[in-house]
């Protein structure tokens, strides 16, 4: 007898501007009536409340031990994500269940607050985007099966991580799905460019920045029959909600005195976190809502500018971005902002006016924080560094409460951004970043035996000479 969940929901797109609803068995990224951005809602969600919060906690905890592959990843929380798929529809590549790693005690003591990184770089394509792609491609499989479609062209704009995840999940899913990614030429690291190429996706480059590529993809989704894979895709948001569910489960479903820091970027991840926390709270899975902090670079901070104004004076204005080492955050007109605005309003009404805040940090702070974190045993990417910098800024500005601990979202693996680290060490970051390397945080290899030709020495002689050089370099003392 299959242990796959029996519950089936009824999913609808709900426009976050005008409230109109549309069936979920179609490609929809903007409201046909007003152009607003939608979210997906299970209209059968009240049925889930027939179980207690304790019962749901026990169900999700039990699934941690399951032998069913499709329930090992983000669909461990099936009923909260997309409960319309059958087992055969779900794409699972090992995403989710990423660890929360406590910061070294000396580092916590140094900054005056306990915190941890959730290492999203340990997902299959080395970023958090895999959570959303698992759900988005499961939807495409479900839709192609139920509608007997012969071909689906899936397309995304990206600064790197989205394209890597889309290409990977598209390669695994295969026909009838084909994947295309559009990148801003010269704005993606070599490592991130290599990922979609390696997965066999069609890679197209355009001049400009991510926002320019996103406008192209949005236009294509409006005019042609293509599946948009950016976070404007509501199915992706559902998959990314699993981040919030995992944090809650890690802390035994009690997030009192926990605050979550996440980079904003295109605002999909912060949308998913807020949405997921609200769902758990509605079901009684968590007894209290934790505080949530969004992090933005000074080079791309439209959401910070919006929320920094008094509520009565808030006006939305996209910004022209400047280069950022946190490349996924270099977005001046995030498509999910309308979702954040609406969810943040509900969130603060339930949890207090300071339950959702946005912190802006400098590029210097981001890069310094990234290096400091990794000098203390972490694998934080520059977006993780952005969160760490925001935590330190929040601490300095008195935004943290006594006894609060923080979970920082390190959205990708540091190896994707190794070139920024190397440029920092060499103090060679282009001037538009506004970053100068600090000598105490720089590192370089020490070359030994530079005048020695290895081929002139036998192995024993070379070993003796090499050991002598190491002893001298390290000032070692004999036993």
Summarize, please:
With 479 residues, this protein is of the alpha/beta class. The protein contains 16 helices and 13 strands. It is globular.
Rounded to an integer in angstroms, the radius of gyration calculated over CA atoms is 24 Å
Q: What sort of overall outline do the alpha carbons produce when their principal axes are compared?
A: globular
Number of separate helices: 16
Structural class: alpha/beta
What is the first-to-last residue Cα distance?
Answer: 65 Å
Main sheet strand line-up: 4-5-13-10-11-12
- The helicity comes to 25-40%
**Strand elements, count:** 13
Q: Spans with pLDDT under 50 lasting ≥5 residues?
A: none
CATH topology of the domain at 100-124 and 237-439: Rossmann fold
Q: Can you write the helix and strand succession as a string?
A: EEEHHEHEHEHEHEHEHHEHEHHEHHEHH
Question: What CATH first level of the domain at 100-124 and 237-439 would be assigned?
Answer: Alpha Beta
Task: Please tell me about this protein's structure.
The chain is α/β, with parallel strands linked by helices and 479 residues long. Among the domains are: 100-124 and 237-439, Rossmann fold (3-Layer(aba) Sandwich); 447-479. 38% of the residues lie in helices and 14% in strands. It is built from 16 helices and 13 strands. Helix 4 (129-147) packs parallel to helix 5, helix 4 (129-147) packs across helix 8 and helix 8 (234-240) crosses helix 10. The termini are far apart.
């Amino acid at each position: 007898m299959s242990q796959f969940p029996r519950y089936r929901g009824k999913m609808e797109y709900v426009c976050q501007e005008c409230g109109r609803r549309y069936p979920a068995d179609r490609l929809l990224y903007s409201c046909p009536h007003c152009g607003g951005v939608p979210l997906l809602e299970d209209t059968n969600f009240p049925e889930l409340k027939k179980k207690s919060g304790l019962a749901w906690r026990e169900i999700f905890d039990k699934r941690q031990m399951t032998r069913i592959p499709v329930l090992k990843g983000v669909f461990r929380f099936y009923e909260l994500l997309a409960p319309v798929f059958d087992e055969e529809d779900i794409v699972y590549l090992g995403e989710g269940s990423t660890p929360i790693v406590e910061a070294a005690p000396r580092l916590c003591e140094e900054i005056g607050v306990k915190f941890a990184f959730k290492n999203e770089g340990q997902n299959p394509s080395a970023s958090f985007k895999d959570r959303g792609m698992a759900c988005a491609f499961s939807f495409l499989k479900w839709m192609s099966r139920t509608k007997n479609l012969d071909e689906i062209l899936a397309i995304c704009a990206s600064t790197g991580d989205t394209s890597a995840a889309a290409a990977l999940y598209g390669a695994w899913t295969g026909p009838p799905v084909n994947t295309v990614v559009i990148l801003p030429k010269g704005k993606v690291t070599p490592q991130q460019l290599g990922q979609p190429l390696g997965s066999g996706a069609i890679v197209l480059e355009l001049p400009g920045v991510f926002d320019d590529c996103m406008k192209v993809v949005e236009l294509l989704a409006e005019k042609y029959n293509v599946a948009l894979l950016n976070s404007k895709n509501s199915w992706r948001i559902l998959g990314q909600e699993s981040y919030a569910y995992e944090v809650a489960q890690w802390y035994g479903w009690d997030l009192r005195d926990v605050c979550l820091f996440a980079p904003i970027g295109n605002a999909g991840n912060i949308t998913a976190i807020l949405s997921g926390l609200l769902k758990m709270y509605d079901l009684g899975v968590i007894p209290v809502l934790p505080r949530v902090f969004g992090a933005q670079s000074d080079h791309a901070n439209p959401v910070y500018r919006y929320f920094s104004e008094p509520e009565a004076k808030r006006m939305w204005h996209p910004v022209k971005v400047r280069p950022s080492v946190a490349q996924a955050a270099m977005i001046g007109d995030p498509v999910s902002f309308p979702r954040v605005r609406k969810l943040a309003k509900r969130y603060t009404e339930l949890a207090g006016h300071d339950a959702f805040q946005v912190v802006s940090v400098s590029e210097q702070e981001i890069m310094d924080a990234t290096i400091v974190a990794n000098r203390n045993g972490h694998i934080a990417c520059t977006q993780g560094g952005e969160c760490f910098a925001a935590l330190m800024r929040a601490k300095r500005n008195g935004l943290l409460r006594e006894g609060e601990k923080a979970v920082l979202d390190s959205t990708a693996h540091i190896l994707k951004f190794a070139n920024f680290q190397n440029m920092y060490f060499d103090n060679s970051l282009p001037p538009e970043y506004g970053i100068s390397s600090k000598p105490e945080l720089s590192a370089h290899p020490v070359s030994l035996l530079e005048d020695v030709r290895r081929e002139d020495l036998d192995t024993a002689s070379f070993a003796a000479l090499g050991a002598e050089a190491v002893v001298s370099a390290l000032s070692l003392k004999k036993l």
